[in-house]
Amino acid sequence: MIAYDPKNWIRLIVSFPRSDTFRRLLPGMIGMAIYCTLLVYLEIDVWHHTGVSTIAVHSILGFVISLLLVFRTNTAYDRWWEGRRLWGTYVNHSRSISMKLAAYIDKEHKAERERLRTLIGNYIAASRNNLRGMAHPNSMESNEWCSASEFSSADHIPNAILLALVEEIDNLRKKGLLTDIQFLTLNDELRSFAEVHGACERIKSTPIPYSYSIFIKKIIFIYCTTLPFALLKDFGYWTILCTLFVFYSFVSLEVIAEEIENPFGTDANDLPIDEITDKTRHNINSIFRHEGS
Questions:
Q1: Is 108 helix (H, G, I), strand (E, B) or coil?
Q2: Is there a contact between 173 and 183 (Cβ–Cβ < 8 Å)?
Q3: In Å, how far are 171, 173, 272 from 107, measured between CA atoms?
Q4: How many secondary structure helices (H) and strands (E) does the chain include?
Q5: How many C-beta atoms surround the C-beta of residue 90 within 10 A?
């Protein structure tokens, strides 16, 4: 995710980062410019046609497309924001369960504390990797109490780590290191981990319906390729610039919506889950290793 100052208008206007839609649409805009130039040249200088303006029809159709794109963008942003709220829940519950376990388990039980600390941190990292389609336990911590390789063969690594965390906490209860009341207070935190990851998988695996997506792309294509015929009579060669501006405006909104509807990737406008993961693991380590724990 790109960090920026929303109040710095000048810098935002003149900057063209790699994720900017202008860069991504430049080949398409060049193709559209060639198409419009050829069409306008043939109509004006070769065939000498003045044509019949259909700008009223295109104005109505443009309004309809705008409504569709607003709905499309809002839907994509809702998915992006829901993903951010879910990862905020990860942060809150990982801190909560870490503080409870650090308080419940005495510091002399170092092996148990370190395994719990590692499992909780690795679950957050495994959730990120799973949402990005990483099959191996990348970026996961290994130590003498918890090896990341023990989960490498699992079909679903976050579930395997969560199962190990549940088993570890249940073993602590059986050893008498946790009371039944303390064990019950941890259940909500453990359940929330599974619920949050399931909700994130729902967002990732449920894109906008295919028919809706293909309809928007088709209607934008038809609108932009027929727009020169509507503008030619009134604008002449200025039709080229007008068409390019409309093409850039409409297609940019669709491209932005496509990018943010799956917010767990590594695109510039996706959620900063790398930073969230690192911050969360740092918080977990600080809680378990604090002198007052």
A1: coil
A2: yes
A3: 17, 16, 34
A4: 9, 0
A5: 22
CA 230 to chain centre: 38
Contact of 29 with 249, CB cutoff 8 Å = no
Nearest in space to 219 (alpha carbons), one of 77, 23, 72, 79: 72
pTM: 0.82
Cβ 114 vs Cβ 95: under 8 Å: no
Phi, psi of 144 (to 5 degrees): -70, -15
Tokens of 250: 């409409």
Residue 145, SS3?
coil
Encoded tokens for 126: 């495994």
Residue type, 160: A
Q: How far apart are CA 77 and CA 73, in angstroms?
A: 6
Cα 245 to Cα 94: distance, rounded to the nearest angstrom:
47
Instruction: Give the residue carrying structure tokens 């503008």.
Output: 231
Instruction: Compute CA distances 275 → 124, 132, 221, whole Å.
Output: 12, 15, 38
Residue position matching structure tokens 């303390």: 182
List the chain pLDDT tens, one digit each, 293 residues: 566 556 666 766 666 555 567 778 888 999 999 999 998 888 877 776 655 566 777 788 888 888 888 888 999 999 999 999 999 999 999 999 999 999 999 888 899 999 999 999 999 999 999 998 876 555 677 777 777 778 878 888 999 999 999 999 999 999 999 998 998 989 888 999 999 999 999 999 988 888 888 989 999 999 999 888 888 888 888 889 999 999 998 998 898 888 889 899 888 788 999 999 999 999 999 998 774 44
User: CA-based angle 164:168:174, to the nearest 5?
Assistant: 145
